[in-house]
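The methods section describes the discrete structure representation at length, but only in general terms. The central task, working out the structure tokens from the amino acid sequence alone, is never made concrete. Nothing conveys this as quickly as seeing an actual entry. For illustration, here is how one protein appears when written out as sequence plus structure tokens:
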Amino acid sequence: MSTQAAQDLLDRSFLRDPCDLNGKNIIVIGGTGSFGRAFIDAVTHRYKPERLIVFSRDELKQFEMQQKWNQPCMRYFIGDVRDADRLEMAMRGVDYIVHAAALKQVPAAEYNPFECIRTNVQGAENVVRAAIRCGVKRVIALSTDKAANPINLYGASKLASDKIFVAANSLAGKDGPRFSVVRYGNVVGSRGSVIPFFERIIESGRKDLPITDPRMTRFVITLEQGVNMVLSSLGIMMGGELFVPKIPSVRITDLAEAMFPGCEKPLVGIRPGEKLHEVMVTDDDARGTLEMSDRYLIEPSFEFWNRKAQSALNAKPVAEGFRYASDTNNEWLSVPQIRELLERERTKKA
């Protein structure tokens, strides 16, 4: 990869036709998480919304957020996606919904399956019902690569959630809310990702970084890119699309080398429910997938969908047999590029 191509990969913004949120009422469900905080920060810096609502069940995190984001537009609602009545109360007068609430830890979901289903599946149903009743305009739900060909309960629950949000366009009727989904991979530095885990090991003074499998690969995206992807998708969505950003892959061994050059890398084996490689567009999805300059668009298999309407986006069908996976990706970050990416993210947090 040329130097310029590598730089373009690191600088990819996903800011195609962002949604104008000036004067709008927005609610971020699960707004105290890593994505929610980054989204709130971006919106308050770039726009002047009428109301920007943080909806979550963690009062401590909300209190901490209020110390930083206390603009007149800010509202903080304690609530849970399992509570349909509370959701409906919080959505009154809302134009746009960003749904980022979920139980995300794979081992926790395996051990607590009922709780995972109540939050990720029944919670999605509650969001859809409340959005339709309140007459919101657009809804974007965040998904995960684990929802494609899932092998664990978390992935299966998010696949069910994705299906609920896509089908919601039919349930809402012609004049109801439009629902779409954004699916992406590992967020650099987010809670629960491997990067903070490696950082804690390095800070402890150990001389090694445990590797599950030397063949393992992952997609990576920054929080800023994820936020931009959601803002852009809110702007171009027609309802029913599942948007997948074009992002680079990394080898887990390269990530370890970038963070701790020359360290030992003992193999500890893949955890239950963990994949060797990530997939974001499966072979079967490919039959209904369109390619854009910076993302893929998986079409819904419903009569309401009109492919001709996507002509303005210059979206074209992918090739027969296409599959978007982290091990067959044509965009990779080298060890120096990974170091640059991590340094950029540290600088932003400083």
The chain has one domain: 3-187+220-246+279-329. Residues 113-134 form the longest helix (22 residues).
